[in-house]
């Protein structure tokens, strides 16, 4: 019980810098398009996801709305809230924590997108929409462990909704649209099976998670973990200050993000990297630009600098690299990128 | 409803082919749509969806996951229940009538849906014969599909219904790429402001389309135009007459697009650029190229004693080939393909291909119906054809017709609380659905050093190619695993793209030791991960080897013992079927290990040369019958 009340603090996670940064960038700017973590089990992936949701300040939602609509953004309301507003009623606001929704690998399509409420249909002769996981995840984080084991078309649905911010259901005689804005966090172990390249491409960032090799850090991890197991409350309180600091930094970045400027030189480098790495399509350059702006905002700067590229470029391109006929792990060549950057 | 904002059509950078193909269809809907193919992330669907604010007809998007009911229509639950008489909820096909029907990732549509689509496209109507409803609705529409052929091939029957074809390509131009990033950033930062900025361009576009439409009526197709068109079609060697008709309509639209009231040759050539590419099936062209190669060889041999027949047929081949490369001239794609092809033919040859003996999944005989090409099976999901209703509650997949029928006799005695039909829990019936499942064929190919000798690899490749072609016809998924040296590698994860398989097949190199067991293990791994994703998949492990494995997995056991042990385990997995193709030359030095492997797997066994259908077809049929009885 105490653990649920006091999850492991985000700032107490040792190592996994890429994963942490990737999550931070996504919560600052959800348009980056989610994150995919390659790696084995037991590497604190789900802990990190839960921890970042816990760290963030509460969000305003419409009281009683099953989609947790944002009362301050009327362009993305569900039908019910919209009708309320049109009737001239006020949308009551309450504050709640950002949610993390788990999607089990065995999820069926109707559980994901929602389906017809049979009881309602039979007893009242009414077509009522029973929301699925995408509705629950609205304005939260959707965590999919082993995303590569999901049926391809369900992954498709997830990525579609994540990209469009809405879920459109056309099945069983119901047509329904509702907001579904969420940060998609997927994990996969490539040895268990591939994900189609088209689907990979639609994840914004990816990180490779490896067990930590440095003895010092491992000692630190064990120490923290023990302390946390002993008394979650005391442990998380001891990190309260760092947590607050991180939360403020994220809030600040969100506020200044729209004003971050990108010098032409960076735009040029961005395009040259995408061409130089030979990735398909334009999603790579677009995502790199978003990631760079978000990173600059996180660093409390109003302009992207050349040095930022090395901090995020591997996360943008790792999963977009074409693998040799079939290599299970994709490889990313940082030296090549460096030579592109400096070969002006 | 949520208001969606679409990225403006005129703000998309580049992709001129796609734009023109789309606009031509807006000018003249009789063209019959456009198929857009290309790599991911190249604004394909953005461009199509950008049409929504421009057009004044319905725009219906069909999600790949669409159910048959939604596509065709089904009983309208709400009205039926409250009014007590059957009402139909119109399907997407009817809603699209007179407008545009758009399908993203159209190559991934399940066969049952493709069938319905083809039916509507060929008849212009949507016929509903299900759940006790029988009616016909108008359903003529412009079909737009986007796809990335890397994800799988599309059925050629459907391809042919697309009037035009356009290729999407990422820009290689730095300035263009920068412009793309800038615009999308601007759009996301302030969508409304961005729209406003492009409003005048959007309006101009609309007006020019309208102006072109008005010109359409005045355009007459002259005799000279017609003969030029027909000749172009004959020269391009496209099948059937649809191309001719589409050419006429497209040429008219092109002329109108250029503001003219007559058609000239340049218009027709421009139309040909969009009309012909997809009417040469990529798969056929692949095999056609092979034939050409053989043909050329034959020609060389023939040169000494020039046979007349041979000559004239190779001349025909020449003719066929020429236009095959014209349409992609502009994109430079043709060049690429050609050079890639040439480099391939240098690596290692692919032996002669042939029609293979019929083989199919045998372990699951119970669920197979008839002798259909693909395997029909009951499904637990909500997709597939509704075949009958059941009282079992499993899926919440309501069969309304059967439910109402079950409730009907009791209506006189039941309380109706505001509805016309009172239904109780015991009346509820659910749908039992059936769909075709493609088999998954996992080829585990010996690429060890011994294969290089005696042209065995070429022959083996020929056999695999034959099996791949067979897989294409049956819409199976395929995967390729090779083993050599110390390891096995999955060179092609499960995919519907047989073309890709053929491509990779050519590139297989031979050399090193024979880690057969690693190969079998890898094949099993591929199958198991696919089974986890799709529990209803019907996997078949096809091992192609001479059986002389000389590397064991753990390095301790004897390779043969380990192989037999593994094989028995695989036999234990009911769902997996297997087949061994023995490439060992029979003779004094043959060991017959491949046969033992087949026995241990409980699978079929063929010698390489037994695979030809003409040799063995009858034997297999006979044995299949005796098995089934």
Question: In brief, what are we looking at here?
Answer:
Chain A is α/β, with parallel strands linked by helices. Chain A is built from 16 helices and eleven strands. Helices cover 46% and strands 15% of the residues of chain A.
Describe the structure.
- The complex is a heterodimer of chains A (344) and B (629).
- Chain A has 344 residues and is α/β, with parallel strands linked by helices.
- Chain A has 16 helices and eleven strands.
- Chain A has helices at 2-5, 17-28, 45-55, 79-86, 109-113, 118-124, 133-136, 152-164, 197-201, 215-230, 232-238, 240-256, 264-277, 283-298, 309-317, 334-342; strands at 35-39, 59-62, 93-96, 100-103, 115-116, 129-130, 140-144, 166-171, 174-179, 182-188, 205-209.
- In chain A, the strands form four sheets. In chain A, strands 4-7-10-1-11 form a five-stranded parallel beta sheet, sandwiched between helices. Chain A has a two-stranded antiparallel sheet with strand order 2-3. In chain A, strands 5-6 form a two-stranded antiparallel ribbon.
- In chain A, 47% of the residues are buried.
- The model of chain A is unreliable at 324-328 (pLDDT under 50).
- Chain B is built from 22 helices and 18 strands.
- In chain B, α1 packs across α11 (242-257) and α13 (282-302) packs antiparallel against α14 (308-325).
- Chain B is globular.
- Chain B has five domains: 9-212, Rossmann fold (3-Layer(aba) Sandwich), CATH 3.40.50; 223-279; 282-347, no CATH class; 376-436, no CATH class; 438-628, von Willebrand factor, type A domain (Rossmann fold, 3-Layer(aba) Sandwich).
- In chain B, the strands form five sheets. A six-stranded mixed beta sheet of chain B has the order 15-14-13-16-17-18, with helices on both faces. Chain B has a five-stranded parallel beta sheet with strand order 2-5-8-1-9.
- The longest helix of chain B is centred in the N-terminal third of the chain and has 26 residues, at 191-216.
- Helix content of chain B is 45%, strand content 17%.
- The relative contact order of chain B is 0.08.
- Residues 281-347, 362-374 and 615-629 of chain B have low confidence and may be disordered.
- Chain B is of the alpha/beta class and 629 residues long.
- Chains A and B meet through β5, α6, α8, β8 and β9 of A and α4, α8, β15 and α19 of B.
